[in-house]
Design goal:
Elements (H helix, E strand, L loop, with lengths): L9 E6 L4 H6 L1 H10 L4 E6 L11 H4 L5 E3 L21 E7 L4 H8 L2 E6 L2 H4 L16 H13 L15 H10 L6 E5 L11 H12 L4 E4 L8 H8 L10 H6 L4 H8 L4 E5 L2 H8 L4 E5 L14 E5 L13 H14 L4
Parallel strand pairs: 1-2, 1-4, 2-3, 4-5, 6-7, 6-8, 8-9, 9-10
């Protein structure tokens, strides 16, 4: 049992790594840490690799986390248990391990501590455990918040959106790239893996159908899909691509904070399961999210207005199974129920 969480002086949170989508979904947990442990020095420890909190999303956590450590040497092999202790010259009042792998939890447990929280092996190693009958949630975000509740004894509800303190320069740039006076709908055809991508021609078909209603389509093209930009220019000359437009391309280097600021100016958005989907969601754009080989329930975007279209509904896990008409209908329904303010 953890006594007097408010008095703890040092807390370390162990994660494996944080990609962009992970980092956005974990923001409520990061914000909750300060309320849970108001007097503690907070250390974010990426045991296996890197974390976006040390890079692209640092501006969103700089006032919450006191220290960020990457490549901590945990989570690669059980042989770590016989190697040098992680952070050998450090000790913490509390270590929160967010991983469920038992050998990884044992490695994290070797960091010197007074209290240890880990979901591995049904909290077998933990100083505090959930009540009898507890069921581990499917959604990663809720898993993290549950760990915070178990560690602190405080309550942390699941948010459906966040108010982000984005630097004003990004919002100013977004206003230049997407001026006031138009009805913008975003299309994000890329993803970290091509099997998660709905065919580009169907994104363009949906965009073309909406142009007839006075909507201005906005395509958010990331660095892995740059070859698509010319195809879109040729077939949809009225579409905007702010991440490729003059000032945007020259200054932002695909900074996710600009994409979030652009999302704040959208009436709605259509996206594959991707990091950009989470950017659109936290930016407040009502979202049509397209899923095929991946599971929506584990990493649902943090969005109060969302319509999920699954390839499985059409008899396949292949993204190509989703027809354009289904996406158009989902988008129109979303706009009718939750029009942008």
């Amino acid at each position: 049992m953890i006594k007097s969480a408010d008095t703890l002086q040092s807390v370390l949170v162990h994660v494996g790594l944080d990609r962009l989508g992970d980092g956005l979904l974990k923001l409520p947990f990061v914000r909750g840490l300060r309320r849970a442990f108001p007097h503690a020095r907070l250390t974010w420890f990426a045991g296996k690799e890197t974390t976006v909190y040390a890079g692209a999303l640092n501006a969103l956590v700089a006032d919450q986390l006191d220290e960020i450590i990457e490549y901590g040497g945990i989570g690669h092999s059980p042989k770590e248990l016989f190697a040098r202790r992680p952070l050998p010259d450090r000790s913490f009042d509390l270590v929160i391990d967010t991983q469920r792998n038992f050998s990884t939890a044992l490695s994290a447990m070797r960091i010197r501590h007074r209290y240890f929280i880990s979901p591995a092996a049904k909290f077998l190693l933990s100083s505090a455990r959930p009540k009898s009958g507890y069921k581990f949630p499917r959604a990663m975000q809720r898993q993290m918040l549950d760990l915070l509740e178990i560690a602190s004894g405080k309550t942390f509800p699941t948010p459906d959106r966040l108010d982000l303190d984005i630097p004003a320069t990004f919002r100013e740039q977004a206003r230049v790239l997407l001026p006031d006076g138009a009805n913008y709908i975003a299309f994000a055809p890329g993803s970290g893996g091509r099997p998660k991508c709905w065919p580009l021609d169907r994104f363009m078909a949906v965009a073309a159908s909406l142009q007839q209603t006075g909507t201005r389509p906005v395509f958010l093209i990331g660095p892995q899909e740059l070859e698509w930009a010319e195809v879109i220019r040729q077939q949809l000359p009225e579409a905007l691509m702010p991440l490729q437009a003059g000032q945007g391309a020259q200054s932002h280097n695909f900074n996710p904070l600009l994409s979030i600021a652009l999302a704040e100016r959208m009436s709605a958005a259509v996206s594959n399961d991707s990091g950009i989907a989470h950017m659109l969601a936290v930016g407040g754009a009502p979202l049509v999210a397209l899923y095929g080989p991946t599971v929506y329930e584990k990493f649902p975007p943090m969005c109060p207005h969302i319509a999920v279209v699954r390839a499985a509904t059409f008899g396949s896990r292949e993204m190509s199974a989703i027809p354009a008409d289904a996406v158009i209908a989902a988008l129109q329904g979303l706009l009718a129920k939750a029009p942008a303010s």
